[in-house]
Amino acid sequence: MLIRTIEAADAADWARMRQTLWPAAHGEHAREIAAFVEGDRRDPAEVLVAVDDEGRKVGFAEVTLRSHAEGCRPGRVAYLEGWFVDAPHRRCGVGAALMAAVEAWGRAQGCSELASDTEIENAGSAAAHRALGFDEVVRIACFRKAL
User: Fold this and answer.
1) pTM (predicted TM-score)
2) In this prediction, what percent of the chain has a pLDDT beyond 70?
3) Residues 6+ away with beta carbon under 8 Å from 61
């Protein structure tokens, strides 16, 4: 397994995995990927991709820098915005390898904390976070009302 920064040639695989992770954001993927490939490194600041021994892209992690995050000290916080591994490759160390690379990236950016989030009902993601050393710091429910 190789973990490396994403390249322009990986755009189709990245889009496929993003669509699986965030199906409701379909129209945003192409625009956000194009912006990143063209050099807009704000959101995300970096994307790491997992490549298996046959050269297939099987996972990714998107990370940004934030000035604050729930449960973290104010300042420079590495934030895991998206973390995905194709189903056949889960529970095989791919997610952990991506997370190790994210942690190294965060330290290189001068961060002393890494934050993340998941939906309350996503027990699998919560368990994966805990297994890799994350502590749950808060649960919230968000609401909306049409006006």
Assistant:
1) 0.90
2) 100
3) 47, 48, 80, 82, 83, 84, 98, 99, 101, 102
